[in-house]
Amino acid sequence: MKIGIPKEIKPQERRVGMYPSGVKALVDQGHSVVLESGAGEGCGLTDSAYRGYGARIGHAADAWEQQMVVKVKEPQPAEYPFLREDLLLYTYLHLAADKMLTDELVRSKCAAIAYETVQLPDRSLPLLAPMSEVAGRMSITKAAEILCHYNGGTGQFIGGVIGTRPCKVVVIGGGVAGSNAAEMAVGLGADVTVLDTDTRALRRLHHDLGGRLRTLFSNSANIAEEVAEADVVISCVLIPGAAAPKLISRDLVAAMKPGSVIIDIAIDQGGTTELSRPTTHADPCVRASNGVNIYCVTNMPGAYPRTSTEALSNATLRYALKLADRGWAQACREDEALRKGLNVAQGAVTHTGVAEACGYACRSVFLTPSVS
């Protein structure tokens, strides 16, 4: 198969769709790869590094005209003209929060597989997990930065020092992002509480972190009580493919201490607070009227592009090889996890969560071996 890797054009996005070692694996398996010139520069990967592993270097149009395009983030409006019926798009999409892009993908009749909805039988999300790890860990370092007085924070050090109180950190959601956030916060000496509806996840966290945190069942009453008292809230509740639930109301934000921080990791799926709106690394926070800072950057791992690109490529390569070898229809037919990753194909929305969020009927497509 002919595979294209274009340069990411989303603001402050410096990751690239495939690490050089991944390109080598594709080429070694008989596929061709076209990389847009400069696509890897943001994470210190030169064109020559890719060329050395068999990639051809070209322009954006060269990358986009290939049969399969491998990206990191969703296509931006300037890239919509590249969408077409015979294209397979393999990237993060987060369509439940982006009806305009959903409409464009449906109109184009391309096939689009979203990393964030590829799901294994145990309900884990193997292509979202590495970026959730990065986002979870950096949520605590970002919160510590925003707490600085000169950034509009409370002026508290997240772990405190001898003779002072540490910050109260509340993590909503004990999945991959939440558990990594909790681990970082505990390591820094914070007073940590994790809320989740899955008591197995809470039990695992309690065990893994040696009981150095509190756990609570997640319900509206417990969320309200914990958030109101928190210095830092890490919100990372995820329903695969669907819009994020609004767990933190305007009134609850108003009840928080001025200068406290919310890191809304779920912003890619629309965010979990009523005040959340997408922001960028250049201007990361929505500031509530009472001085609460809500961090809503939609590509958090893009702040660490080298680590993030390598981790993402390690995860996505397995499925990229399967898609390239078999074509999207046969690959999805054979692999249930990939089938769940298919969001749009043949002019139809094929994922229930996306369909419900964007006002479409969810339709299955006839996955014949001849469709590629």
Structure commentary:
There is one protein chain. The protein has an eight-stranded mixed β-sheet, sandwiched between helices. A seven-stranded mixed β-sheet has the order 9-8-7-10-11-13-12, sandwiched between helices. It has helices spanning 20-28, 47-51, 60-64, 99-108, 129-146, 176-187, 199-208, 220-229, 250-255, 305-326, 328-334, 336-341, 352-358, and strands at 2-5, 32-36, 56-58, 68-70, 88-91, 111-114, 168-172, 191-196, 214-217, 232-235, 261-264, 285-287, 293-295, 342-345, 348-349. Strand 14 and strand 15 form a beta hairpin. It has two domains: 2-125 and 305-358, 3-Layer(aba) Sandwich (Rossmann fold), CATH 3.40.50; 131-302, NAD(P)-binding Rossmann-like Domain (Rossmann fold, 3-Layer(aba) Sandwich). The model is unreliable at 368-372 (pLDDT under 50). It is an alpha/beta fold and 372 residues long. Helix 5 packs across helix 6 (176-187) and helix 10 (305-326) packs across helix 11.
